[in-house]
Amino acid sequence: SAKDLRVDAEAAVEVADDGGVSRVGAALELVDVARPPNDFETIVAENIWHRAVAFGPLSIERIAGEIHAQVVVNGDVRDAARARVDFQATVRIAGRLLEAVGERLQSGDVIIAGSILHVPVAPGDDVVVDLGELGRVDARVR
């Protein structure tokens, strides 16, 4: 059961046929930070913190730039920030990490590109991640 929930505002990046960036949009990741990790390898291998992810529409072709992120919980803005992004670098890094373990990215794969905002939430909360021109995604925490 969840003990210490957070919502991460993230960008979602779709991999193109040529291994670059096809489309981008908003993503919302639900994480539980209460479980104590033993070490980095265990965190990754057992996906300790991840609980769920939701994606908004992927529609904008964009490689890099600044985005404005906002997390709204139950109608109140809980946090906002600007972040510089390089989606091509995100795809390259994810590809290298997967290659190191004998896997690879494929066209159509969608990557969540790292937390821009990290906001406490609780079961029953209605959450919106708004990334401006990149779109938005909403979910109810259960």
Helix fraction by DSSP (H/I, runs of at least 4)? 10-25%
User: Which class do the helix and strand fractions yield?
Assistant: mainly beta
Mean of all residue-level pLDDT scores? 90
The separation of the N and C termini measures: 11 Å
- Could you state the order of secondary-structure elements as H and E? EEHEEEHEEEE
Computed CA radius of gyration, to the nearest angstrom: 15 Å
Overall 3D form:
globular
How many helices in DSSP terms? 2
Question: How much beta, percentage-wise?
Answer: over 45%
Largest sheet, in brief, is:
5 strands, antiparallel
Low-confidence segments, ≥5 residues, pLDDT <50? none
* Number of extended strands: 9
Give the key terms:
globular; single chain; 2 helices; four-stranded antiparallel β-sheet; five-stranded antiparallel β-sheet; 142 residues; mainly beta
Structure description:
With 142 residues, this protein is mostly beta strands. The chain contains two helices and nine strands, in the order E-E-H-E-E-E-H-E-E-E-E. It has helices spanning 40-46, 87-100; strands at 5-15, 21-32, 50-55, 64-73, 76-86, 110-112, 117-120, 126-130, 136-140. The strands form two sheets. Strands 1, 2, 3, 6 and 7 form a five-stranded antiparallel beta sheet that branches. A four-stranded antiparallel beta sheet has the order 5-4-8-9. The mean pLDDT is 90.
Describe the structure concisely.
Helix content is 15%, strand content 47%. It is built from two helices and nine strands; from the N terminus they run E-E-H-E-E-E-H-E-E-E-E.
Strand-helix topology:
Layout: E1 5-15, E2 21-32, H1 40-46, E3 50-55, E4 64-73, E5 76-86, H2 87-100, E6 110-112, E7 117-120, E8 126-130, E9 136-140
Antiparallel strand pairs: 1-2, 1-6, 1-7, 2-3, 4-5, 4-8, 8-9
